[in-house]
Input
Amino acid sequence: MRRAVLLAAALPVLALAWVLHPGAGRATPPSADAAVNAHACAAMSDAEMEAWVNDWFANHPRVGIPAAATETPAATFAASGTQFDADGNSATVVDTVVIGAGQTVEWRRVSGFHTVTSGTGSDDPDAGALFDQSLTSTAVPFFYTFTAPGTYPFFCRPHEFFDMKGVVVVLGPTPVRSTTWGGLKLLAR
Output
C-alpha cells in the first residue's frame, strides 16, 4: 500500500520532469533551435546568458536592417530582467505601442542579455523573419522603422518562456476627406 501511494505521488513529478526535459539521458546534443528551450528550466548568470545570446547569433544570422540611430523613435522598449517595458508599468505583462507607418521603434537593453525577435515565439514559422537582433552589453540599441500598417509581435528568444514579449501596432495614414462649399475646399481628418 505504501509503495502504491509513493508511486502515485511520484508519477506526476516524473511526468512533469519528462515534459520539461524530454531529452534527458540522450547521448546526442540538442539542436540549436532546441537550445531555446534550455533556459526555461534553469537560472543563468549574466555570463551564461551573454554566452547563450552570442552562441545563438554565431549560428544564426542577424536579421533586419536597423534604422539610423539618429532617428527619433516614436516609442521605446526597455529590455530588463524578463520584460520589455514601454509604459513604465512593470505590471503590464505584454507591452504594446501604437505608432504610424514610417515611424521608428527603439529597443534598449537596461539589464540582462536578450534578443528582439519578430514573431509570436520560437514555434512561429516566421520567427525572426522581419528582425532578429541582440540586446547585450556590447550591442547598441536596436532601431527599426515600420513601413507597413499591421500588428507586429516580438519576443526575446532566451526569455520566451517567461513571456518576455511585446507588440508594435502600426497604423496607416489617416484618410483625408474633402468637402467643397461654394468653391471653397475643406480638408478634414
Summary: The longest strand covers residues 165-171. The CA atoms of residues 83 and 164 lie 5 Å apart.
